[in-house]
Amino acid sequence: MPNSPSAKKRLRQNEKRRLANRAVRSAMRTQIRKVREAVQAGNMNDAETHRRLADNRLDRAAARGVIHRNTAARMKSRLQALLKRAKVSA
Predict the structure, then answer these.
(1) Residue 43 Ramachandran class (φ > 0 left, ψ -120 to 50 alpha, else beta)
(2) Which of 20, 62, 79, 82 shows its CA 20 to 30 Å from the CA of 3?
(3) CATH 1.20.58.110 is held by the domain 5-89
């Protein structure tokens, strides 16, 4: 347990930020899952809509520092490639 007032404050701040970051990360992962599920179901219109929302969530997470910006770019690229492959095979 923290002893100094500054350490106590740091603990409070870290907990607040952890919960906020967890919410951002969870929303991001949920949106990515929705894209993959829509592609699997063969619903390309929904998949495209969900991909745009996923891009937005990924960019937001990267801007907040929850994930690295290169990680966001890689995930966006992979989702786009997934959609493109699904459209070609459909």
Answers:
(1) beta
(2) 20
(3) yes
- Joined together, the tokens standing for residue 14 give 């870290």
Half-sphere exposure at residue 43, Cβ-oriented, CA atoms within 13 angstroms: 11
Q: Compute the distance between CA of residue 41 and CA of residue 83 in angstroms, rounded to an integer.
A: 12
Of the pLDDT bands very low, low, confident and very high (cuts 50, 70, 90), residue 89 is confident
Compute the average pLDDT of residues 56-60: 97
What is d(CA 75, CA 41) in angstroms, rounded to the nearest whole number?
20
Would the pLDDT of 90 be above 80?
no
Count of C-beta atoms within a 10 Å radius of residue 87: 12
35 closest CA partner among 82, 85, 73, 72: 82
Q: Which two tokens stand for residue 64?
A: 């907040």
Contact 61, 43 (CB under 8 A): no
pLDDT for residue 76: 98
